[in-house]
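Wed. Picked up where I left off yesterday with WD40-repeat-containing domain protein. The coffee machine is broken again, so keeping this brief.
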Amino acid sequence: MSKRGASPPPSTEGTLIKRARSNSPARNQIAISSGNDERQKGLIRSVKRTSNLEAPIISLSGSHSAEILSCRFDPTGQNVAACSADRSVSLWRTYPPNTNYGLLSSHHKAPILDLQWSLFSPLLYTVSADQMLSFTDVTTGQRTRKIRAHRGIINALDRTMAGGAGTELVATASDDGTVRVWEGGEDGSKNSIAVFELGCPATSVAWSADGQNLYIGGLDNEIHVYDLRKGEQVYALTGHTDTPTSLALSPNGSYLLSPSFSSHTIIHDVRPFSPSPTRIHRVLQGAPAGFENTLLKGAWSKDDGGQRVAVGGADRMVCVWDVDSGRVLYKLPGHRGTVTCVDFHPKEPIILTGSKDGTMLLGELDPGV
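Structure written out below (tokens, as returned):
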């Protein structure tokens, strides 16, 4: 007598099967195909998304015919502004459909070297090689104020709302060897409220967190710290062997990022009582400055409180470091020219880069820990 064989598994055809609910975050599936047949595509990777961008990498191009010299998110993170050597400013939406809703091409007569969004009003501040400081209302696209701020090329600007007076202050750094402070907003005076003589061309400027000090990078390879109330230099930050190209203050106001022509990026400790006599917190390498002497602009991440910094390079890549360890986290490709400027989104792990190829890229990063 033979044993009965195992019963065949029940057929699932036409049977309703209940699946357990998945609480895992949404993922995008990236497919690749060697041919044109859609049916031959195979899944190669599942990517966890970390932002509200339409795709992990988005190109913003078509507005500029020359190199982009500065690009920044507005304080809300909803908009992007970029200025170029073609004397124009472009305005973009950060999120889909990423429209280029504005192109301001008549406000300056020379390359626009830097820009900043106002912290409290719908204004955009721009400085140019035509020695002018311009105030533009981004809701109308009209220029509201125009100041002949310097007698030389204006390389950089920064703004602050700190200081207790409730007035936005704008600082401009120029090749004429001076840094001047102006009243922001639409109703400010055309006369500067403070002037600091550096003695050499000023390439970069940044405000301290309390709005009482100005950090000024010069052609003498030093970063000069001026007290706004005293009107004099209080100390200097050394360590560079070549000219600092830009300055960026950390979100907590304790550290200052300064790339330079020497391809070394230094993070300075600007707290009142620094444990290091040299005030050098980290020396970072990985972003080559190249031979073009471009004023490369670095930035701090904001969504994680400043755990990462980024600087573009002449190798057409963006280098992102971990501040605590000094370790390189990313080398981000995508551009066809020197990456001149970088900015981080104020609320999400998104990096914005601009290049000499006239394009910008929005890239999604892993969230900070």
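Quick read: DSSP finds no helices and 30 strands in the chain.
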